[in-house]
Specification:
By secondary structure, this protein is an alpha+beta fold. Helices cover about 30% and strands about 20% of the residues.
């Protein structure tokens, strides 16, 4: 896996006032040509088309990278590549951030992008972490048409982390004048942005269609038309690729991976995902539940054969022992728990459940990952832990997760933010279903600390306590193997490891 080159980049930049320039100037390009079709394994929601309602997750990021643009974003050049903001600075106390906007950027309707659009977009964002961040804001202002200043009430050293994939979509910019003219509802039906592609058509659960924006500020896209077709069944996705109906088939696992590997007419690519799959146990905070006993949670962890789980469903991946990504300087890496069903049964007996117990409702992650979750359930069943499995598609799963409806249940969650600070939002942010007082105290101290050394020490203690208590059950890291036809040139998965869908779209090419 490619290492994250972050260091404690936020504070270093804040203290040094470092400015990163990414000019985005390119030579004139030929007119876009051809059509690229992808059979994707996840559903796209209408909410994903509007930055204000986009949850900022990686799967929801596809329409963002396609139609819109943002102040800074993860790109092949780095995790925080300047985009609409050609540079940015942060004050030493991490209370004030300034973004210098790129000149000459236009929305798809020809309107110029200005600081007013950025202020408008930051204020109207109402999806993941939006309210939490906005409560901390003292003032957002357009200092001039090309400079935006954000002032927070207190130090906010983690702010830039919230702009990374899976953090939020609050810095993706929408056109103020256009939305005020047509209204919110109409904008969601026919969104415009300043990204590399223009909206053509969206049929929920079926397809999304886009055409090249030849006035994109960075470069003219190579491909004229993009089509994304939602196909839940991997067998169907692979069959469509073999018949020439699509050019990319995502999430090839198990027998389908092996089938694609044997076909000389296609290539297999292995885009790495930042996700560490974990079991989130919402029942552990109920003192009457068996899951309140740390021995029971440890037994459930020891019952899982992580390497086999990875070999079947995530070829090339491995079992994980903690939440942090490799390369995160504040992350603490733990070895994965061994597969030891005998010890699991012993711990259950010590906890008072020699015959096992009923563990409640269990929600595997959506769609293409159902078999992964059901295998975890089978491992538990083998040591006496019975659960009721509930399968939901992605929009329903996300709605239940974000709506707090899984509190009295277990579910497989994707820990996908780039930094351990962001990943700990599971316990300490709006997505939390409960917490332990000692962990909460340490987190409060961490949030108030600006000194890099002190922050690293505190977040290390938090991670070790989480591991000791088995607050989460880490499973495996993940990739998303894709089969591609000869029409696809090179590797279309260039934003690694934070984005596992194809991106950036303006760089993708077809073989002639």
């Amino acid at each position: 896996m490619k290492k994250l080159r972050m260091g404690w980049w936020m504070t270093v930049m804040a203290l040094a006032g470092l400015q990163i320039l990414f000019l985005g100037i390119s030579e004139p390009s030929a007119a876009p040509q051809g059509v690229l079709k992808q059979a994707i394994h996840w559903s796209l929601s209408a909410d994903y088309l509007d930055p204000a309602t986009n949850i900022g997750g990686i799967s929801a990021g596809l329409p963002l990278y396609l139609f819109h643009d943002t102040l800074v974003k993860s790109m092949p050049e780095g995790n925080l590549t300047p985009s609409l903001a050609e540079s940015w600075t942060a004050s030493p106390d991490a209370k004030t951030y300034e973004f210098k906007l790129r000149r000459g950027v236009k929305f798809h309707n020809g309107d110029p992008l200005t600081a007013e659009d950025v202020v408008f977009s930051l204020g109207r964002y109402r999806a993941a972490r939006g309210k939490t961040i906005q409560k901390r804001v003292e003032k957002v202002e357009a200092v001039n048409p090309n400079l935006v200043r954000i002032q927070f009430k207190d130090s906010f050293p983690d702010f830039m982390e919230h702009l990374l994939p899976s953090g939020s979509a609050m810095a993706w910019v929408a056109p103020k004048k256009y939305i005020e003219k047509v209204g919110e509802a109409e904008f969601k039906k026919k969104p415009i942005g300043c990204g590399p592609y223009k909206f053509v058509e969206f049929v929920p659960g079926v397809r999304l269609v886009a055409e090249a924006n030849e006035e994109y500020w960075k470069k003219v896209p190579h491909i004229k038309r993009m089509e994304f077709i939602t196909v839940a069944e991997p067998a169907t996705r692979l069959a469509m690729l073999k018949r020439g109906e699509v050019d990319i088939a995502t999430l090839m696992q198990g027998v389908f991976y092996e089938d694609a590997k044997k076909d000389p007419k296609m290539r297999l690519l292995h885009p790495i995902s930042p996700v560490t799959w974990i079991v989130y146990n919402g029942l552990q905070f109920d003192p009457k539940s068996p899951w309140a006993d740390a021995r029971v949670r440890k037994a459930a962890s020891l019952a899982i054969d992580r390497q086999t789980l990875a070999d079947i469903f995530m070829p090339g991946c491995k079992g994980m022992g903690g939440l942090a990504m490799e390369g995160d300087p504040e992350g603490v890496l733990f070895p994965a728990d061994p597969y030891d069903p005998a010890s699991a049964k012993k711990l259950l007996a010590e906890a008072g459940y020699p015959q096992g117990f009923h563990g409640g409702k269990f929600y595997p992650y959506e769609g293409g990952y159902w078999p992964y979750g059901e295998q975890v359930m089978n491992y538990w069943k083998a040591v006496g832990i019975q659960v009721d499995t509930i399968l939901l598609d992605r929009p329903a799963w996300l709605a239940n997760r974000q709506g707090g409806k899984m509190k009295g249940a277990l579910f497989i969650d994707p820990a996908g933010l780039a930094t351990i600070g962001g990943r700990l939002e599971y316990l300490f942010g709006p997505a939390s279903y409960g917490n332990y007082p000692d962990l909460q105290t340490l987190w409060t101290q961490y949030q108030r600390t600006v000194d890099p050394k002190g922050r690293k020490e505190l977040i290390g203690r938090i991670q070790r306590l989480i591991h000791e208590k088995t607050v989460f059950i880490p499973l495996t890291n993940t990739n998303s193997p894709a089969a591609v036809s000869p029409l696809v040139k090179g590797d279309p998965y260039k934003v690694q490891p934070l984005v596992w869908h194809t991106a950036p779209f303006e760089d993708m090419e077809l073989n002639q």
